[in-house]
Amino acid sequence: MTTVYYASSFVPRELIAACGCEPQRLVPVSRGARLRCVEGRCPYTQAWLETMILKAERGEDCIPVFTTTCDQMRRA
How far apart are the first and last CA of the chain? Predict the structure, then answer.
């Protein structure tokens, strides 16, 4: 089953589950900067991007989903 990671509580878990995927709220943990810092990107968005890159490098089946309610997440 594919895991769909979401960062915002505005993403409906029920919709993800109805599509046959496993919804998982992603709480990123920064363990060292892998990406260069970009002006206008908050630490939460930076950690979220790094967590998704780490999961992709491990070969985990995951799909990130986020809303456009946060400018930094939208631009990332």
Answer: 26
Q: What is the pLDDT of residues 33-43, one digit of tens each?
A: 565 666 677 77
Instruction: Read off the tokens for 19.
Output: 């599509």
Q: What angle do CA 33, 24, 3 make, to 5 degrees?
A: 90
What 3-state DSSP class applies to 28?
A: coil
Q: Is the pTM of this model over 0.70?
A: no
Where are the domains positioned within the chain?
3-75
CA distance 6 to 56: 15
CATH code: domain 3-75 is 3.40.50.11890
- For residues 10 and 6, give the distance between their C-alpha atoms in angstroms, rounded to a whole number: 9
